[in-house]
Amino acid sequence: MAVAVQKEMDEPQLRPITPTLGLAQASLFGTLYIVLGLLGIYHLLPYVWREVLHFQGGLLDRLGLLVCLGCAAGAWIYAWKYIVPAVEGVKAGVAFGVLIGLVSGFLIDYLLCMLVDGFLYAVTRGKPDTMGIARPLIGIGIGGGFAFFWLRMTWRYLNAPAFQKQLVAIENQGWFQADIYKRGQGRLIRRLTLLSALALIFTGLVHFWPVIQKNFSGVWYWPMPFMTNKFIPIASAPGISVTLVLLLAALWVAHRLVNAAPMADFLISTSGEMNKVTWSTRIQIRKDTIVVLIVTFILSAYLLVMDVFWLVLLRFLGVIKH
Description:
The protein is mainly alpha-helical. It is built from eleven helices and two strands. Strands 1-2 form a two-stranded antiparallel sheet. α2 packs antiparallel against α3 and α2 (23-52) crosses α5 (90-123). 10% of the residues are buried.
């Protein structure tokens, strides 16, 4: 007994690995990683391809650009687990930082600046350039002040313990995980459900593709507030971009539909109940089909005879006239 205890004591004790960053810091780091990656793939890489490398026009040019974009996106997604700290709730924190902290903040800040710039346009009676350097300074003050306020509020939310618990709870629901839930159970019914969702997605995209191409064409530029004839490039191919975003979102929802715990457990239970059903043999189905067809024929003939009989009788009595 003493030897066994001594052996256990001699074994090295492994310390649990603790993350060096908290949830707020990891969420901020992941948000910057997502935003910089998207800007690099969507804007910087096409710019370098066309303006620096001078690849323009032709089918091979487009295919080469698509291959480069696909490889860059794959490497960007693959490097996530090696670059962003693995902190519980960080995926939900990054989603909050991107959607609320940056996207929503940028849109609200942009609308606020456009509103103030419109007020200056009205005050100067359609000649805001007469304000000189004061107009851009006002824009920097308003835009920068609101951006600082919004980012500070986002940072406070990310550091709040109660909100961090909500982020962890949201991430534990499985919407940010690509793992397959209970991989070996209910395969057939889950695959059929996934194929049905994919078929619905495909038909929806085919149906709305002409509408998307019609309403999302050309190049999108947003005018910069407090600047005349200055524009912000948003999308060079908005139709393809919108279609790709909708496709990826629909594919992710379809994947999580059959792997989210409540839905997956329901499909697995349904598959288990279907396995308990005793199915009829081929001979029994053939006999039952023949019986159904004969009974249907007899009932149809009976109804036809009765219909003709009553029609002739009522015409003979004069109740129904020709």
